[in-house]
Amino acid sequence: MDASLEKIADPTLAEMGKNLKEAMKMLEHSQRRTEEENGKKLVSGDIPGPLQGRIQNIGEQGHIALLGHSLGAYISTLDKEKLRKLTTRILSDTTLWLCRIFRYENGCAYFHEEEREGLAKICRLALHSCYEDFVVDGFNVLYNKKPVIYLSAAARPGLGQYLCNQLGLPFPCLCRVPCNTMFGSQHQMDVAFLEKLIKEDVERGKLPLLLVANAGTAAVGHTDKIGRLKELCEQYGIWLHVEGVNLATLALGYVSSSVLAATKCDSMTLTPGPWLGLPAVPAVTLYKHDDPALTLVAGLTSNKPADKLRALPLWLSLQYLGLDGIVERIKHACQLSQRLQESLKKVNHIKILVEDELSSPVVVFRFFQELPGSDPVPTAVPVPNMAPSTVGRERHSCDALNRWLGEQLKQLVPASGLTVMDLEVEGVCIRFSPLTTAAVLGTRGEDVDQLVACIQSKLPVLTCTLQLREEFKQEVTGTAGLLYVDDPNWPGIGVVRYEHANDDKNSLKLDPEGEKIHAGLLKKLHELESDLTFKMGPEYKSMKSCIYIGMASDDVDISELVETIAVTAREIEENSRLLENMTEVVRKGIQEAQVQLQKANEERLLEEGVLRQIPVVGSVLNWFSPVQASQKGRTFNLTAGSLESTEHTYVYKAQGAGVTPPQTPSGTRAKQRLPGQKPFKRSLRGSDALSETSSVSHVEDLEKLEHLSGVPEPDGLEPGGPEPHPGAPPPQEAELTGAFQNGAQRPEDDRPQVEEPESLR
């Protein structure tokens, strides 16, 4: 495989090898400098235009794989004889190399773009092998003896449906084999149950056709007991097909016995593209069969040169990497998984779900919090001494937190290639599969260490949030006007909704008034500039608005938080009602003022007479006998909501004293904070977090604030009391002020009363 292409006897191959060497030299000098006016460097592999800089760096081996597609188009222009020899040589060499690397002796290869396409062709081959007249009679042969394809419950989603669609078989031809429930891994096929199913199908007159086993399930990377499955298939004449990511370890020096048993199966599907970081490289299905006519009918072999040229990108890539390069990449991925697994064993509150799979290159873990009287190991059976609702609620809470943790880790360490998945038994978990991502993303050991450090930094946030959830629920339940919303998909402290006076609790429709109140509440909470994050969204399973409170990074005063939400929402609702009532009062006041002014105008006409209304006559009459008419008008008091006459204003040149507006409601607790302390934080008194230089001053400041807030303000001076302040008004002035408030006219003291209606108007 490492021999030079120039040693090939065929002149066409020698010429192609020479051109390939020149292309390799061009790839080695892939960087070049561009225009100095932009001051930027352009990689020759980048595509100019809008895609420039957005193409992933695929490396030299990736360029070789892509070069194979262009080279295949060039080779297809050769004459038929040379093309036949060249494509046959490429196909045979690639098949031989793959069989040797992955320990599959005397096998044939089928190259395909879709990963599931190879299995569909294998099923078609099994049908032709078991039903001799299938080519002639078609479905009539299958009607008398229906075939059965066995799939594991842990197989890839949609695999069975794809096979039935490709083969034209009804869905009853699929048999789903459950995984272990009592002994062994819960992601491995139950061999005893499979044998029972096979016996029942044979008794019913069906034909067990094919069994798909997993050497590394798509979810957690577990390997079925392939050795026992092979014995069972030989006993009943069933075709055994194996697929999975763990098949890549067959190229290593040490292979586990369960994976090594896959070399004895009838067929297997390999995906060397993701394993080796090769783009646009086809998947390969290796199989063993002696009848070339059946393989041709099944579509596994072809006489078309274009079908044989599918192996050209992989042929070039294997020669470029060599055996050592292939083994090194797979070994590096396995070492990364083992490194992460060993590091996570030392981290608290992290559960590894594949501890028994030491040879698996897949690590699945999740955050968990032990509950009183519960088993730390996730099980599908509820704990006897806990209510099922409690178990389900805690399960959903941990799922939401694990989903948040996975998204955070994917953003912080993008080179890790993490995947968040939802398992049926364990719940939401995080998967690290470097064998499918490390070669493409360039994952290194430092990335694994950074991943572990990020997990440790997020654990305090997760534990604190999980502990504060129950306290938050109790506080919200005990607070009037607030409703606790149990949203299982929210990873924060909780969700709360304010119930206003017109809220219909039984309705699930959109509430415009409640949405307005919650929007104002969200704005007020953001203005507090606390460490908590607030978000407004629809209620779970409803259209009503709610306030979502995010993760807690420190010890949060839940009682203060809930009280602030309740008081602020109540203020917003009262202010909204005040504006609505004021609008109605102003409208009615304007209508009443118009009626009164019209009535006053009619009275003035009756008082002055008709002659005074004539332009010329009225002027002469007013000159001889002027009318002493008072200026009458109407003023609207917004505070009292009443309509008053302006006669008092024109006579005394001042407006009368109105009703004092009500005070804005405030919280019952006025918590004093230290300088720089953010809202919703517990008091730092007695905390070790205060430094030696600042702890004394902060405590003194807190004591002064508490002392000042505890001293009541005097309402007046008692007889025999202390002397008044030098800046205070004398007693006579105080008496005059009080007398004016009871009815005297002091324009300068009534100035706030004049300005308030103008601002509101």
TrEMBL record:
<dbReference type="InterPro" id="IPR055103">
    <property type="entry name" value="PDXDC1-like_2nd"/>
</dbReference>
<dbReference type="Pfam" id="PF22937">
    <property type="entry name" value="PDXDC1-like_cen2"/>
</dbReference>
<feature type="compositionally biased region" description="Basic and acidic residues">
    <location>
        <begin position="698"/>
        <end position="707"/>
    </location>
</feature>
<dbReference type="InterPro" id="IPR015421">
    <property type="entry name" value="PyrdxlP-dep_Trfase_major"/>
</dbReference>
<protein>
    <recommendedName>
        <fullName>Pyridoxal-dependent decarboxylase domain-containing protein 1</fullName>
    </recommendedName>
</protein>
<dbReference type="InterPro" id="IPR055102">
    <property type="entry name" value="PDXDC1-like_3rd"/>
</dbReference>
<feature type="compositionally biased region" description="Basic and acidic residues">
    <location>
        <begin position="746"/>
        <end position="761"/>
    </location>
</feature>
<dbReference type="InterPro" id="IPR002129">
    <property type="entry name" value="PyrdxlP-dep_de-COase"/>
</dbReference>
<dbReference type="GO" id="GO:0016831">
    <property type="term" value="F:carboxy-lyase activity"/>
</dbReference>
<keyword id="KW-0210">Decarboxylase</keyword>
<feature type="domain" description="PDXDC1/PDXD2 second">
    <location>
        <begin position="360"/>
        <end position="466"/>
    </location>
</feature>
<dbReference type="Pfam" id="PF00282">
    <property type="entry name" value="Pyridoxal_deC"/>
</dbReference>
<feature type="compositionally biased region" description="Pro residues">
    <location>
        <begin position="721"/>
        <end position="732"/>
    </location>
</feature>
<keyword id="KW-0456">Lyase</keyword>
<dbReference type="GO" id="GO:0019752">
    <property type="term" value="P:carboxylic acid metabolic process"/>
</dbReference>
<dbReference type="InterPro" id="IPR015424">
    <property type="entry name" value="PyrdxlP-dep_Trfase"/>
</dbReference>
<feature type="region of interest" description="Disordered">
    <location>
        <begin position="28"/>
        <end position="47"/>
    </location>
</feature>
<dbReference type="GO" id="GO:0030170">
    <property type="term" value="F:pyridoxal phosphate binding"/>
</dbReference>
<feature type="compositionally biased region" description="Basic and acidic residues">
    <location>
        <begin position="28"/>
        <end position="40"/>
    </location>
</feature>
<dbReference type="InterPro" id="IPR050477">
    <property type="entry name" value="GrpII_AminoAcid_Decarb"/>
</dbReference>
<feature type="domain" description="PDXDC1-like third">
    <location>
        <begin position="472"/>
        <end position="577"/>
    </location>
</feature>
<keyword id="KW-0663">Pyridoxal phosphate</keyword>
<comment type="similarity">
    <text>Belongs to the group II decarboxylase family.</text>
</comment>
<dbReference type="Pfam" id="PF22930">
    <property type="entry name" value="PDXDC1-like_cen"/>
</dbReference>
<feature type="region of interest" description="Disordered">
    <location>
        <begin position="656"/>
        <end position="761"/>
    </location>
</feature>
